[in-house]
């Protein structure tokens, strides 16, 4: 029997669709500040809710989103900072807070992952991206990271242009803004740009353990290929891919399209899972894991466990936090189908 494969899909997004798609992913449609449940042992979480809500109120009270106001408006009491940066480990609810901030903001606004924002610039060009977003009151950027010099220059210039135009920017990351890029490329050569960007943000720390695994069992072990095929066949709307073939396919698809790749998929089945052979493949798997998690799409595998996707060397390197986040999210997703 032939099963639907992700590798057979050819997702496309027009520039207009890219802009229109800049909203929180489906799993965050209903989140609000009052649905965030702070860990009572972590006071920074309750404080983060208050600070994010206050930031939303300031955005709504501010004219914002205008070139003229950005150039001639009054300087803000906080030194002109229009950015809020949520820093903390994975699984503490930063994306929940960022989406809640987006929902609480009135007027034009955009929400996208770091990859989606850079993908937008690639599709529209820098000047057109600035033109389209400069009328917004808020740009929310999830999973903020600087992985290479090109991204560093692109994003620092974009943030400078947008904040000067009066746009407020909120971002989440596992790395403090002045430490972005460390361990990935020659960040020391770009310190001026990185520090100039970080100076536009107020940093809000969110501490705590990964909520996805509080008191929950470990992910189910990988299954046999026969069992994987049987369950894929029994699950309407599911896909079944060979792991290596999917990795090869992802290499030719921009990460900004990974979300569209998953449209209509109810469960993903991967056969022959093993550790990523190199950093490029590993980072594509991180991006795919994020989009699977955004859409609450469960995952089943054969071969090795999802916790073995990244080698020990990778887990000790500059992308360690990204890989641990991906393992956390994939573990949670694999649990969703464990009892099916």
Which band does the percent of strand residues land in?
5-15%
Helix content class: 40-55%
CATH class of the largest domain: Alpha Beta
CATH H-level name of the largest domain... which superfamily?
P-loop containing nucleotide triphosphate hydrolases
Mean pLDDT: 84
- The total domain count is 2
Number of β-strand runs: 8
Low-confidence stretches: 64-79, 181-191
Secondary-structure element order, as H and E? HHHEHEHHEHEHEHEHHEHEHH
* Morphology call: globular
How do the strands line up in the largest sheet?
Answer: 2-3-4-1-5
Rg:
20 Å
- What is the tally of helical segments? 14
Specify the CATH architecture of the largest domain: 3-Layer(aba) Sandwich
Largest sheet: 5 strands, parallel
GO molecular function, one term: ATP hydrolysis activity
Organism: Saccharopolyspora antimicrobica
InterPro entries: ATPase_AFG1-like, P-loop_NTPase
Pfam families: AFG1_ATPase
Give your account of this protein's structure.
It holds the Pfam family AFG1_ATPase. InterPro entries: ATPase_AFG1-like (IPR005654), P-loop_NTPase (IPR027417). It comes from Saccharopolyspora antimicrobica. Keywords: ATP-binding, Cell cycle, Cell division, Nucleotide-binding. The chain has helices at 15-20, 43-61, 67-72, 94-104, 114-124, 126-133, 149-164, 191-198, 225-234, 243-251, 258-261, 279-294, 312-315, 320-335, and strands spanning 83-87, 109-113, 138-142, 168-173, 201-205, 238-242, 267-273, 299-303. By secondary structure, it is of the alpha/beta class. The chain folds into two domains: 31-209, Rossmann fold, CATH 3.40.50; 212-335, Rossmann fold (3-Layer(aba) Sandwich), CATH 3.40.50. The chain has a five-stranded parallel β-sheet with strand order 2-3-4-1-5, with helices on both faces. A three-stranded parallel β-sheet has the order 6-7-8. Helix 2 packs parallel to helix 4 (94-104), helix 7 (149-164) runs parallel beside helix 8 and helix 12 (279-294) packs across helix 14. It is globular, with a radius of gyration of 20 Å. Mean pLDDT is 84; it is low at 64-79 and 181-191.
């Amino acid at each position: 029997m032939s099963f639907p494969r992700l590798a057979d899909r050819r997702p496309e997004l027009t520039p207009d669709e890219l802009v229109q798609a800049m909203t929180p992913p489906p799993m965050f449609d209903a989140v609000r500040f009052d649905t965030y449940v702070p860990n009572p042992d972590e006071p920074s979480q309750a404080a983060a809710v208050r600070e994010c809500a206050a930031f939303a109120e300031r955005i709504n009270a501010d004219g914002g989103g205008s070139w003229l106001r950005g150039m001639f408006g009054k300087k803000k009491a906080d030194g002109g900072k229009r950015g809020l940066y949520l820093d903390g480990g994975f699984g503490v609810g930063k994306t929940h807070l960022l989406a809640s901030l987006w929902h609480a903001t009135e007027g034009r606004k955009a929400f996208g992952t770091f990859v989606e924002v850079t993908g937008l610039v690639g599709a529209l060009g820098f000047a057109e991206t600035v033109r389209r977003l400069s009328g917004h009151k808020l740009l929310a950027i999830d999973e903020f990271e600087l992985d290479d010099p090109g991204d560093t220059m692109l994003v620092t210039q974009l943030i400078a242009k947008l904040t000067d135009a009066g746009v407020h920017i909120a971002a989440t990351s596992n790395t403090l803004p002045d430490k972005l890029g460390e361990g990935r490329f020659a960040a020391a050569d770009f310190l001026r740009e990185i520090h100039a960007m970080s100076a536009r943000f107020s940093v809000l720390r969110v501490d705590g353990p990964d909520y996805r695994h509080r008191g929950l069992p470990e992910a189910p072990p990988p299954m046999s290929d026969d069992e994987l095929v049987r369950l894929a066949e029994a699950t309407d709307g599911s896909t079944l891919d060979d792991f290596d073939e999917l990795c090869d396919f992802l290499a030719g698809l921009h990460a900004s399209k990974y979300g569209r790749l998953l449209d209509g998929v109810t469960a993903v089945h991967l056969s022959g899972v093993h550790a990523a052979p190199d950093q490029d493949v590993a980072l594509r798997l991180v991006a795919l894991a994020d989009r699977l998690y955004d859409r609450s799409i469960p995952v089943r595998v054969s071969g090795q466990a999802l916790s073995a996707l990244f080698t020990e060397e990778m887990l000790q390197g500059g992308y360690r936090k990204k890989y641990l986040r991906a393992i956390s999210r994939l573990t949670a997703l694999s649990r969703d189908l464990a009892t099916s």
